[in-house]
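A favour, since you know our structure tokens better than I do. It will help me judge whether the discrete encoding reads sensibly. The space below this message is yours for that.
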Amino acid sequence: MIRKAIWIVLAIICLIIITNWSLVVYGLKQAKGQLTITFNTEPVKSLLNDSTIADSVKQKIKIIEEARVFSFDQLGLKHSDNYTTFYDQKGEVALWNLSACQEFSFEPKLWSFPLLGSFPYKGFFDLESAKSEMGQLQQAGYDARIRPVNGWSTLGWTTDPILSNMLAREEGALAELIIHELTHSTLFVKNDIEFNENLASFIGEKGAILFLTQKYGKNSEPYFDYILAEEDSRTFRNQMLLGTGKLDSLYQSIVDLPDSIKAIQKHLMIDQITSSIDTLHFHNSRYYSAFSKASPNNAYFMSYLRYYSSKDSLEEILTSKYQADMELFIKGMISYHK
């Protein structure tokens, strides 16, 4: 009887593996990529004591350590050993993100993973694999997009290392990235990526401003540089969110038209949105050439909804309910989503 039960369980496991073979293969590739990084890190303390490591690298690592301590002690984010190890990317991209969206609506392609839930994006340690899957999605009629990932959270499955490419960021942007990712490891709501990313982006930005204010003061160059960069970022993303709203209204108004007509209307609207960038003011001129190489698609616009669509509502909650106290705000978010 026991032997029969074991065979039944094994048969069920084999059936699950066979019917989800592509997911199994993907999972093994991801595990290999993540473990390769994990097993090739070195402790930050060793780097700081290594006379062959450039002072500029050590300085950025110290900033990350300061941002970690600030996140734990001043913001109330969950203590962890994240960013106490270092992985040298040797200038290469470590991870690529693939996302996709319906061609004439903002309905994202979702990928489901056991235990983790559903995600509107998929990571790849191998660019060619990402391109192959993007091609399949495009053939199926999706708008798809691949972008490099500068940092990610494994949500406690492994200890997240400092990635060497992170160090190219200015101090404020570096602190923002660390606080963003530590927010994920503090609070992550299953099957609600838009909330997770909006919250992490909001806390990352607010936390970086508080970090720079405490460290340097509001009259300092690092604070001033970050605020100017944030002004540019906010101006650009608000324009993208406005454009996303216009596209969404367009799609709803042309739902019954032939796809060929929809495509023309869509591209005319996207051209209007990208052309409008020239009418905006930026401190950094790079924004004016944001679409010089390629025109954005729905997957691109969808990313702004995913990361920034709830910023105003989160700001309202912070000020009205928590009197602009970030630590109280974060405690409230954690408590509400327990």
Q: What stands out?
A: The two ends are 42 Å apart (CA to CA). The longest strand covers residues 95-102. The chain is about 60% helix and 10% strand.
